[in-house]
Specification:
It contains 11 helices and 12 strands. With about 325 residues, it is α/β, with parallel strands linked by helices. It has one domain: Alpha-Beta Barrel (TIM Barrel), CATH 3.20.20.100.
Length: about 325
Amino acid sequence: MNPSQNPTVNLKPNDKPMPLVGLGLWKVPKDKASEIVFEAIKIGYRLLDSASDYGNEREVGEGIKKAFDAGIVKREDIFITSKLWNTNHKREHVRPAVERTLKDLGLTYLDLYLIHFPISLKYVDPNVRYPAEWSYEPDKQLIIQEPVPFRETWEAMEELMDAGLVKNIGISNTCAALIQDLLKYARIRPSVLQIEHSPYLTQERLVNYAKSEGMAITGYSTFSNISYIGLDIGDANNAPKLFEQPTIKEISSNYGKTPAQIVLKWAIQREIAVIPKSSNHDRLLENRNLFDFELTQEELHKISSLNRNLRFNDPGEYANIPIFD
């Protein structure tokens, strides 16, 4: 594999390289996850972005094992991310949560473990329901919040690094004010900030601030509302489709690339990692075929100018917990 086809960013504090192009595993069905993961690794993906909340980590682990058994990669060749769910923020629940994830994935360590949301919900025994999600079934009543200080959760995350269970720790869906507070007491600083990031939601001030503090950025939902069409989240069905924007279509035509490739290139050319999901072989290939062209600074600016602060993954909307206000 040509190294230029797997560009990386070095994470602080240990200089672990993280690929800038990965496979996101949100919404990947259990019955397809193993084969999709195996196919992605075979194609050349070296970053897998998982989470206990996605409910498919056991099947993801089966796909990883297939790749190991086939001799395609060794453990040190791939970068595996997972995330701590909201119901496991108490210190005593953090290590069991990552141990469950490691067991399901069939791994002895994670390359990166993120706090999924800066939201602490009441603990749910995994023997009762796993993943715990946001609400109780069948009435969809929201799980009540638990008053767990973010500092307690972060210190427990640091202990995971001390124990060798994870190589890097980070945060997700976190605003700048909370990051500033975290950095005042963090013994081990966050390596990565993962956020919703698209041409409709560039979050440039947050991105620049996090980078200035030594954090790498991973952007999810890079295709904006396209990722949420059909879900009962925000107004994704009525928002203008990103790929139909004249700016995107014009640049796409100029390079002979798809709108998806242009948007992904816009992100990685600015050193923001991307984790698009696909179960289609051709699209998996397409989402990595980004390295035979370069966008100009003017084109990058034009795409960024599409920003309209349009956010879809907002717990203030679907869980009445307004963390971004």
